[in-house]
Write a structure and sequence with these properties.
Elements lengths: L1 H10 L4 E7 L3 H6 L6 E7 L2 E7 L3
Parallel strand pairs: 1-2
Antiparallel strand pairs: 2-3
Length: 56
């Protein structure tokens, strides 16, 4: 995930939308993206889950 965030920052993208895979801990992943608006998706326990956050 850190590589994805670094790539987004280096390319100058204003936000990041990413599918994290199966059984990913979205709460932990959003902590790694504190300075980029992000929307993450994961497939957990038979359901598609999502989490988004924006920097303050």
């Amino acid at each position: 995930m850190n590589d994805v965030v670094a790539d987004a920052k280096n390319s100058g993208l204003p936000f990041l939308v990413h599918y994290a895979g199966e059984n990913a801990k979205l709460e932990k992943l959003t902590r790694t993206c504190q300075d980029v608006p992000v929307m993450l998706f994961a497939y957990n326990n038979g359901h598609l889950t999502a989490r988004c956050c924006t920097p303050q």
